[in-house]
Design goal:
The chain has 340 residues and is an alpha/beta fold. Helices cover 35% and strands 19% of the residues. Helix 4 crosses helix 9, helix 5 runs antiparallel to helix 6 (234-256) and helix 7 packs across helix 8. The radius of gyration is 19 Å and the shape is globular. Mean pLDDT is 94; it is low at 334-340.
């Protein structure tokens, strides 16, 4: 039996470290965290909309007096499911890598809301985005980017507790960072780790992501808060690293043959990974790998929305039902076909 159950809400990891989990970890259901010592607080990430973030803050504050005022917020990367609630953490220093700041405006909640509300106008990509994101409410969100940046590493004292911010992007995203609490052997990975689900390489290089996984495996860590999924261990990091290596090894010969990335996605035998949650994300990762293999002097910048049409087709190819079937189990709501 797992040490912690994978249930929605706050989980006490011990010695002032907390995780906040949103099952089932699929599209948009992300995790966050809180580190506390005395009256000092550092929060790791916000959630995908204002309602979810407000619920998280209320849960923290109901149990932890110091959480009434958040001193520091660190965004592990720019994806909206880790940043769209930033505006609710008023008065906090907001810290991230420069890559996260550079990437921030790419995730516009108003655009996501427009697509989800008028999905048919955006073709298959819009239909699949609505399927993925319909549990969330993107209204009222004001992008609130970090106000401070760091590169390399940055040590922050939370009371007498040292917290180390470690820049590891670009890999999953343009600006990934790890938040490490060495004395407690706890690390918050953001989307460097997806546990019990398929990772997605929006940026790459994927080889760098694999090396980051190896770095985490070499660290003195016992408890890992993944960006998505249950509270994890190093074995989960190893499993995801092996997935990334497997897809890399299967993709390269097809790239060398001159195959198109989408054709390659359908050609590759995913083996044991075929049944992983959100396996359709492999389409994006293979495109990123093909960019890696090409080693162009200037890396292509690719818009994310068109991928959703391709992922929708690939999910159908895998014989999967709608994404929202899994979401309903997590959110506990019953949604009609015409409801948001």
């Amino acid at each position: 039996m797992a040490k912690w159950q994978y249930t929605k809400g706050m989980h006490d990891l011990g010695n002032g470290c907390y995780a906040y989990l949103l099952p089932d970890g699929s599209w948009g259901w992300s995790n966050a965290g809180l580190i506390v010592d005395g009256d000092a607080t550092l929060m790791v990430d916000t959630l995908f909309d204002l309602k979810l973030t407000a619920e998280m803050l209320a849960a923290y504050r109901a149990s932890i007096p110091a959480a009434k005022e958040i001193g520091v917020l660190v965004n592990t990367h720019a994806d909206g499911d880790h940043t769209f609630g930033n505006q609710l953490v008023e008065g906090a220093r907001i810290i991230a890598t420069q890559g996260t700041v550079d990437d921030f405006a790419r995730f516009d909640p108003a655009v996501v809301q427009q697509i989800v509300t008028n999905a048919d106008q955006f073709g298959s990509a819009g239909v699949f985005m609505k399927e993925c994101f319909r549990p969330f409410d993107f209204s009222g969100i004001e992008l609130t980017p970090p106000t401070e940046t760091f590169s390399g590493t940055l040590d922050i004292m939370v009371g007498s507790k040292k917290v180390q911010l470690i820049e590891v992007g670009p890999s999953h995203s343009l600006g990934d960072a790890l938040i490490y609490v060495p004395d407690d052997k706890v690390i918050y990975t953001g989307d460097i780790l997806f546990t019990e689900g398929t990772p997605i390489a929006w940026y790459g290089p994927v080889d760098r992501w694999i090396r980051v996984c190896d770095m985490v495996l070499d660290m003195d860590v016992e408890t890992i808060v993944a960006g998505h999924g249950p509270i994890s261990t190093q074995e989960d990091v190893r499993t995801m690293r092996d997935y990334l290596q497997y897809v890399t090894d299967k993709s390269r010969p097809l790239w060398e043959q001159g195959m198109d990335y989408l054709e390659a996605a359908y050609k590759i035998d995913l083996g044991e990974y075929r049944d992983w949650n959100d396996a359709e994300r492999v389409v994006v990762t293979i495109q990123t790998l093909f960019d890696d293999f090409g080693q162009a002097p200037e890396r292509p910048v690719r818009a994310p929305i068109p991928y959703f049409a391709e992922m929708k087709g690939f999910r159908h190819h895998l014989g999967r039902g709608p994404v929202h079937e899994a979401y309903c189990k997590a959110c506990g709501l019953t949604h009609g076909t015409d409801q948001p």
